[in-house]
Amino acid sequence: MFEYKLTPQLSVSFQRFRYPDHGIVYAAPTSLGALPFCAGSEGLTVPSPDGEALWIGLLTRMVPSEPLLVAMLALGADGQHLDAVGGGPAEGTTPLAWIRVPEMRHLLGIAHHDDGWWALAREAVFAGAPSCVSLTLLARPERPRHAAAVALPIQLVDSAAFESICQTRVPPLRPDSAYGAV
């Protein structure tokens, strides 16, 4: 199983799917398999194969009275930091919007103005959609309000670079996995 323990209460997984026709998803697409990753001193390296996108599964190990807040920044190929939950530019490396976990079980992408989400991909297939070279996932307790966040840098790389860096092959898509369908 490809899960990364971000905090004692929260693990994340990277679920892959075919890049959507218009670059936007409105619900969690059926996963075609979890993506592998490798951890290094500068965070995680995750493959983002051509023609695919990913969503991030949020797996909690907590009681409902101890919610976490999760945010994500995306660094676009244009060098702009986007607040993925808020859907707009970030103020430097500070997210403006957070989601509450366990109410939310996934981060589908970068919020889009029509209630959908731009698909997360290293190379966007749809013109006008953001291409992401890296992500930063942040998690903190809901209380106290100014608690420090744990930050996880995530580099998105093509399959060949992933196999070279991590010495692990990217498995083929698994249409039979059916994880995450809504």
Question: How many helices in DSSP terms?
Answer: 1
Q: Largest sheet, if any?
A: 7 strands, mixed
- Overall strand count: 14
Main structural class: mainly beta
Estimated radius of gyration: 15 Å
Taking all residues together, what is the mean pLDDT? Answer: 90
Helical residue percent?
Answer: under 10%
Order of SSEs, N→C?
EEEEEEEEEEEEEEH
How would you sum up the global shape? globular
Spans of at least 5 consecutive residues with low confidence: none
Distance between the termini: 21 Å
- Report the sheet-strand fraction: 35-45%
What is shown here, in short?
The chain is mainly β and 182 residues long.
Summarize the structure in words.
- The chain is mainly β and 182 residues long.
- Helices cover 4% and strands 40% of the residues.
- It is built from one helix and 14 strands.
- Strands 4, 5, 7, 8, 9, 13 and 14 form a seven-stranded mixed sheet that branches. Strands 1-2-6-10 form a four-stranded antiparallel sheet, with no helix packed on it.
- The two termini are 21 Å apart.
Top keywords for this entry?
single chain; 182 residues; mainly beta; seven-stranded mixed sheet; four-stranded antiparallel sheet; 1 helix
Indicate the topology.
Elements: E1 4-7, E2 10-18, E3 24-25, E4 38-40, E5 43-47, E6 52-60, E7 68-76, E8 81-83, E9 99-101, E10 106-107, E11 109-111, E12 117-119, E13 132-141, E14 150-157, H1 159-166
Parallel strand pairs: 5-14
Antiparallel strand pairs: 1-2, 2-6, 3-12, 4-5, 6-10, 7-8, 7-9, 7-13, 11-12, 13-14
